[in-house]
Amino acid sequence: MFNWNDLKFFLAIARHGSTMAAARALKVNQSTAQRRLVELEQSLKLRLVERAPSGYALTPSGTAVLAAAEAVANAVEVFERACAQAASADTLRLTCPESIADRLAKSGFLDRFRASYPGLNVEFVLADRYIDLAKGEADVALRSGDTDGNLVGRKVAESLWAVYASSAYVQRHGAPQSIADISRHDLVTFDSSLSGHRLSLWLREIAPDAHVTARSNSVLGLVTAVKSGVGIAALPTPLGDGDPDLVQVLPPVADLTRAWRLLCHPDSRQLFKVDAFFDFVGTQIDALKPVLTG
Q1: Which residues contact 294 (CB under 8 A, 6 or more apart)?
Q2: pLDDT tens, 117-172?
Q3: Quick one: 96 and 67 in the same domain?
Q4: Quick check: 93 and 214 in contact, CB under 8 A?
Q5: Residue 169 shares a structural domain with residue 145
């Protein structure tokens, strides 16, 4: 009998075309990906992939079993999600940015939810990456920007970003007078781990040669750097406007505006706790807008 867990290595190599790329996607070293593939092939007594000039290619046997392997992986994902849901039937796991979790807690939103549904608790799931709802890592998400097309949900508010500086920076260097003026200032931005974020893409377009004085892998890191006076940055308006040490030097940028959405996986939408949370959020739109938009 083969190890079902080895299927994910076969699928990753099939998708990415190399053991190095597959290992990177699965966060293991390359030798582990190679070894697990060999063990799977030995257990199945099938040659699934072969080395090609451009990497790895599926053999006829690999092509024949690929769809079945994907079906097994999907079934395991559904099973893991069901287990996670069963283990926390009275706890709704909400993922959102750290700064929003803090604002939600202080706004009284969670207290009002518990008063409306005394049998349910809200547990925050916070990380510097997108939490995977499909794998059951959380039940619902408050998320802005690009989202997984497999998720379902509703718009809650606008996500606005404006340009901020510290008072000390403005005194020393002045403030940009327009978007075009940003390239003449010291900038704070995301590091390479967030090169695909809309802020990174926007800055590469409007200020490709600007002098960057600090980089961070989180929004809170951007705030800290701007407060220190080393440069200016576009920040979410709830954080920028809510910090007395920051000055909004340019108004919300249309190119950075996105929607805040409440999202869940389709398989979770009819769960009582998820349905209850969606219904409650529907009654709280006006109260949530200042929390999410500032």
Answers
A1: 160, 236, 237, 238, 239, 240, 241, 242
A2: 998 999 999 886 788 898 888 999 999 876 666 899 999 999 999 999 999 999 99
A3: no
A4: no
A5: no
